Amino acid sequence: MLLEVRNLKVYFYTKRGIVKAVDDINLYLDKGEIIGLAGESGSGKSTIGYTIMRLVPFPGKIEGGEILFKGENILKLDEETFRKNYRWKKIAMIFQGSMSGFTPVFKIRDQIIEVLRIHGWTGDYDKRVEELFKMVNMDPQLAEKYPHELSGGQKQRAFIAMALALNPEILIADEPTTALDVMVQEHILNLLKKLRKELNLSIIFITHDLALLSEISDRDYMLYAGKVMESGPSEVIFKKPRHPYTSLLVESIATLDKDIIKGIPGSMPDLSNPPVGCRFNTRCPFARDICFKEEPKMKAFSDGDEVACWLY
């Protein structure tokens, strides 16, 4: 097991109250594996990614749990040790909206070299930039361009190259295909699959788009209101979902044979005052009395699926 998250809690202290964005989350990632974190907006997906990178934005705080990288709890490390030894070197992240993350007044090459320099890369900078661009299927000459001279897909691949600059073992990809057209989305997915195979890279793929997720992940975690509702192998999640939330999300995937696409009625609960019991209870078509009184525990099934639901 390369990475394990145990009982993670991340709360945001706002004027309206304490928002429990991530509330007792457990997950794991093996070497060379791609896992998906999926769910509606506000479910806690991106917050988990930022927490693994130890970049939780203010006013958020990590209030409990452990994040183990090869058995070591990285939450107990001081910031300087984590920055030097883990951030970007062992764990890197493609941030949501990263296409706009490049500084517009510097060439792409110079921005990648800055990452190498700050983190103490001892090799040839120009050679490394060339290697990285070839790795993401780009002409190395494009590294001499400014960000505005590249297309959206090119900028995204360039950012992936920068994230891989220090040979990390884990890549967190937060909505890496947002704002890209369908063909470019497919190219990005194929690129991530290629990198997984060639580098034995482990990937945490964060998305709200289940159609994309079904094409890339080995296992998935379905998140809602800061909780994992269901987790398991992708073929189980998409072909035999057990949790009503997962089933409704899968039904909402647009396909050519569907005349009507169903949404999930209602909206996400206020996480500063989450509902008692199951957090999906007010929107669930199968909710019973116990769902409003007691939170369900995870139940494991023989096919690798785990579900937190009182139906089982």
Topology:
Layout: E1 3-14, E2 17-29, E3 34-39, H1 45-52, E4 60-69, E5 72-73, H2 79-85, E6 91-94, H3 108-118, H4 125-135, H5 152-163, E7 170-174, H6 182-199, E8 202-207, H7 210-216, E9 219-224, E10 227-233, H8 234-239, H9 244-251, E11 298-300, E12 306-308
Parallel strand pairs: 3-8, 3-9, 6-7, 7-8
Antiparallel strand pairs: 1-2, 1-4, 4-5, 9-10, 10-12, 11-12
Helix pairs in contact: 4-5
What is this structure, in a nutshell?
This protein is α/β, with parallel strands linked by helices and 312 residues long. It has a domain at 3-90 and 168-250: Rossmann fold, CATH 3.40.50.300.
Could you explain how this protein is built, in words?
The protein is of the alpha/beta class and 312 residues long. It has a domain at 3-90 and 168-250: Rossmann fold. It contains 9 helices and 12 strands. The chain has helices at 45-52, 79-85, 108-118, 125-135, 152-163, 182-199, 210-216, 234-239, 244-251; strands at residues 3-14, 17-29, 34-39, 60-69, 72-73, 91-94, 170-174, 202-207, 219-224, 227-233, 298-300, 306-308. The strands form 2 sheets. It has an 8-stranded mixed β-sheet with strand order 6-7-8-3-9-10-12-11, with helices on both faces. Strands 2-1-4-5 form a 4-stranded antiparallel β-sheet, with helices on one face. Strand 4 (60-69) and strand 5 form a beta hairpin. The protein is globular, with a radius of gyration of 20 Å. The mean pLDDT is 95.
